[in-house]
Amino acid sequence: TDPDGKPVSGAQVAVFPSPSGWVKTATNGAFSVNWRIESWQLQQGGDPWLVVRDLARNLAAAENISEETTNLNVRLAPAMTITGQVQDTDEKALTNADIGMWLVACRSYSSISEQSVRVDKQGRFEIKTLPFGPEYIVYASAKDHGRNQQEIEFEPGTNRLELPPFVLKLADQVIAGQVLNEKEKPASGVHVSLSGDGQPQDSVTTDKQGRFRFKVCEGRIRLYANGDNSYCNISAEAGDTNLVLQLRGYSSSSRSEAKRASLKGELLPDLGAFGLAPDAAPAGKPALVCLLDAEQRPSRRSARLLSEQHEALRQKGLAVLAIQTAAISAETLQTWTNASPLPFPLGRL
Known about the structure:
By secondary structure, the chain is mostly beta strands. The chain has three helices and 25 strands. The strands form six sheets. It has a five-stranded antiparallel sheet, with no helix packed on it. Strands 7, 8, 9, 11 and 12 form a five-stranded antiparallel sheet that branches.
């Protein structure tokens, strides 16, 4: 019924978490909805929510139910509305962002709408017809940017809430690598996905050589690979482009730190091709070669850390040298080395 006690026809009804679909109330306001809940969701704690939304009149209600609930009368009330804006890190409106919303039930997240909300020309959005009671999570994403989310719980006495701006980082870095099977052979057709604070939500399938590639934001990332009865997950840093993920059976441990193809025992190539002196790496002695890109912050940080440790490494007989491997102007490279002089030789590809 509506706030005046009159039957409401055409209202949407569903049970969360994991609604199988919305049903509509009849002309007399009656409804019948079949629902199910997985045992693992019950074990999470909390009760399911019966949600009713009258989109035409912006009325809504939510009631906790149990398996014993077979007959329930619901009175709708003025619904909640959420508004906000999506920005980039320079506080400029992102006009290509999408907004989605999850309703939290039994500590599970379920989408309350089949379609995301598109922001307007000012990067603003509005989500209406939300019932008071449940907790919500609102998330924003945009092409070539990361993803951000906010947890929402309405306060009594208000039916409109303006959220702090969603700030999305630019996905201007790359993370890439190769997936190997348990026999250390390239694994093609493997599903690889990523997660991380402020990172895009993306997934790809490895190619014939088992390789994958993502555009990501600066920061820490978690990668997940799933094959036939095997999987792997590792942590990595944006800018890592030579990662190796080795699949393991579900019965064995699959958590590991990112590893890379080893060159231990291999001879170095001719360093003259990189503008380095022949004796930059003394023959017969171990050398640490840092392949970097001066325009990428993780590379600059690695170079700085190596500079701080250079003398200690030299005293242990380890030669350190670096090679700029990405296309860059001589002026840009010189500006960086002038600002941050390196105590070891720097070559250029």
